[in-house]
Amino acid sequence: MRIADYPFTQQAADHVRAAGYSLEDLLEKPSFRIFRTRAADRVRGAIDGDISDVRAQSESELLSELLSYPLARIMVSCLDDSHLLRRYALAEAKLAHRRMEREKADLILLAEDLNLHPQPAGDLFRLHFSEYIVAGHRMKSPKWKLVNRDLDRGFLTVTRDELVRLMEELVRDRVLSGLPLEVDSETCSRLDEILTPLRRDLEAMRSWHQTDLGRVEEGAFPPCIRSMLADVAAGKNLAHSARFALTSFLLRIGMSSQDVVALFSSSPDFDPERTGYQVEHIAGSSGTRYKPPSCSTMKTYGNCPGEDQLCARINHPLNYYQRRVRSISRKES
User: Fold this and answer.
1) Domain containing residue 220
2) Burial code of 183-198, b = ≥16 C-beta within 10 A, e = fewer?
3) Under 8 Å between Cβ of 211 and 325
4) From start to end of 67-196, where are the E strands?
5) How many separate domains does the chain show?
6) Model confidence pLDDT, tens digit, residues 156-202
7) In this predicted model, what pLDDT tens digit does every residue of 6-51 receive, in sequence order?
């Protein structure tokens, strides 16, 4: 296991500390520009929803992966946006997930760094239920519920893939811990050349979901949404989970509740009053505005018709839509 691939670990932090690089070096030295550039890439990846997976080989590339991480934490703190902090933690966790999936070495040491203590049991791993609950508390799919796991004297078993998924959640918590950092205004000012374009990207992220649906080409929708819309247009009844996913997606990108209700009018079981109530509820009439399910949840409920190339690089239908809208806008400008 290479610590450069997992810069959030205690071992990585100790290595950076022992190297003796000062904040002044990281911010000012021309030879350290590569580290600042990679740090900006990490933040931009968080804004877009996907941090690029640099497969470092050379000594300078390995060092860049290590040093760009604390620099990126400084940058997201300077940008001072709570939503971005959460996106950054999630994006770093997704990057770690991809690296853990192809990891050839034992994952036990990395798991223990994250306060998880899996015990190898053949092709499986035994976990104490208390650690399982801490790691998987955000997982809503039925398969993750403790009642659906067999317990043996306080322990349950998980596959390697499930262990990686649980570790991803702990990475997310680790990255978010301590953010935002207390960064003085002078430090942020010295990073202004890098932060200015990131602020523009961040502003675009804030405003994209308010785009008028009528001005967006249908090609901006992810395959799952296009498939659901085709079924609705063909007069098919959608499953409850698909109806929720479609409704919450369309509301989030700016479609009115009335238009969403009208969309379902071709469904065989259409009931205007009932549909209106359900749509308004998802829109937030009860105080909670619901977000569309993630790609993993869509797959769990059988609502993913198959991935295209962009799907493979994102984790949520809204991220897909955001990227396609930007691409369409660039082509039109």
Assistant:
1) 212-332
2) beeeebebbeebbeeb
3) yes
4) 119-121, 124-128, 155-158
5) 2
6) 999 999 999 999 999 999 999 999 999 999 999 999 999 999 999 88
7) 999 999 999 999 988 888 888 989 989 999 999 999 999 988 878 9
